[in-house]
Fold these 2 entries.
Entry 1:
Amino acid sequence: MLQAKEVTQILRAHGYKVTPQRLAVYHALARTTAHPQAETLYAELLPLYPTMSLATVYKTLGILCEVGLAQELNVGEDAYRYDANTALHPHICCRVCGRVDDVSGLSLTGLQREAASCTGYEVTEQQVYFYGVCPACREQELRDEAGQRKVH
Amino acid sequence: MLQAKEVTQILRAHGYKVTPQRLAVYHALARTTAHPQAETLYAELLPLYPTMSLATVYKTLGILCEVGLAQELNVGEDAYRYDANTALHPHICCRVCGRVDDVSGLSLTGLQREAASCTGYEVTEQQVYFYGVCPACREQELRDEAGQRKVH
DNA sequence: CAATAACAAATAACGATTATCTATTTATAA
DNA sequence: TTATAAATAGATAATCGTTATTTGTTATTG
């Protein structure tokens, strides 16, 4: 998570003005690893910035992605998610509760090179998404099964 | 690409009726490797089935995904793409022309196991997307650069 | 201090997808 | 084959995430 000073520098370097709203969106995003949607960030910021509009959140997120302070995720929901961690790393999404977590400790740079040689593309980016059931939901499922067995 | 008879069996086995429209959507999708959007399939089918509506295409694609005859892709566009090849394989998307190709010859099963052990999730699916510039667009870019040099 | 440009907020617009409703078609068994 | 019940297709409208537009405000520069 970058400091306000660094964020300011980066925005200015790309010709964008620095406003309290923009810093607030960045810090709300950088403070969490929950990969929120625009709507979630908006709801979180509204108490602090009662005049902020959802359109401003979207526009700011677009700018943050453009200048390399965030990345956009799409796990197949109806809405985008955002991540202030722009390092190359996979994400994993729980099919039960919908949470999205980072996956750290997988080396993916080899994949990119392989993909380039398979396809003839010049490969510049990649996104890796896993889907399954998170630990909390797995436990819940085990509890549910146990409960059902008692009923029978 | 499965034959109509097999598709019929699979749909019936899942309790769905088999209609000319459903077979047509499946075959239009299975015939191509371009990973079309619903709109594209609709435009392709309209001359053959003048009464078909876009809603029917969407509903049919949803059913095909549910019964395992297709999968849904999302490379970050505003619309979903669909693929009748349901085997686990990555996709690669050209940032210039937007085309989406299959990547074959990458082994991904190890990744899934690694992700499970990193996160504690039970991992059931994955999607791998690469982004870059396709061979055709790379050539075009080279030609454009050559042209610019002449002008100077 | 004036002039200019960029901005935030509000609103409307847009477009992909889904829900609803009705007439039609399919599957099934007599 | 044909009658019947259930499921479907198509038309239409609705929904919702996202983007464009407009207008008044703020910040910056000379």
Note: The longest helix of chain A spans residues 135-151.
Entry 2:
Amino acid sequence: MYTIRDVSEKTGLSAHTLRYYEKEGLLSSVERTPGGFRQYTDEDLEALGLICCLKNTGMNLREIARFVHLAQEGDKTLKERVALLREHRESVIARMNEMREYLDKVTRKLEYYSEMQRAYESAGER
Amino acid sequence: MYTIRDVSEKTGLSAHTLRYYEKEGLLSSVERTPGGFRQYTDEDLEALGLICCLKNTGMNLREIARFVHLAQEGDKTLKERVALLREHRESVIARMNEMREYLDKVTRKLEYYSEMQRAYESAGER
DNA sequence: GATTGACTTAGAGTAAACTTTAAGGTTTAT
DNA sequence: ATAAACCTTAAAGTTTACTCTAAGTCAATC
């Protein structure tokens, strides 16, 4: 069992953000101590791992919440979850290909600038 | 010479966004007709190409504006611009590597789910 | 020359994802 | 037993990047 602070340190998400995620339905039914403090389990940590993974590949919180809700409904939503993940995967791959192209353009610009800079500096030396 | 509408169509940015970018200093001194309408040149289009490229690789508008301002100051800022682009390039590469790892995780999750789904469906057939 | 449609501005509004605040209850260490 | 640290909630505030609105000006066509 982990406190919100433990989980914050493990995940890199702030305690504020963890509460916010719970409120938004990204994390379901976190246990509480008799005093009302959150007690996270290993399963919660694992769920957070997937949440971060989806978030960091560009899925928005609403979609993540939808995914989590499907998971709660059990095996009958497996097909839908697979479809959702597959679609997300495709969009991430597309995004990465797009970025690769843009990166090439940045690289070319950089080479052009480096060349200009060399010319400028050697002109200054004279 | 292009109208704001032409440029909107060519770049995929809305006319609103083009005006906004200009206001934020991303695009400098767009020419006007006697009546006050914007007239974009080919150089403006090229500058917008670089802006979109930087934006689509995750640079925020403030940094892009800074880059544009440096470019306006001429050759003496070449070194700084090279440094800025180089740093950006590194961060894009890091981002892509990170995404690749997250994508692998999504892929593994997807494979696991697909397997579960197959098992679930074959159980349903019985 | 009047109508229509595109353009102008300043400024308000929006969405997403936090982040902070205020007011108060709980645990732990001294 | 009391202070310090940590937790609770609801709700307001922030940031980024737009997006829309209102009121008016300009250009092209009938």
Note: Residues 78-125 of chain B form the longest helix (48 residues).
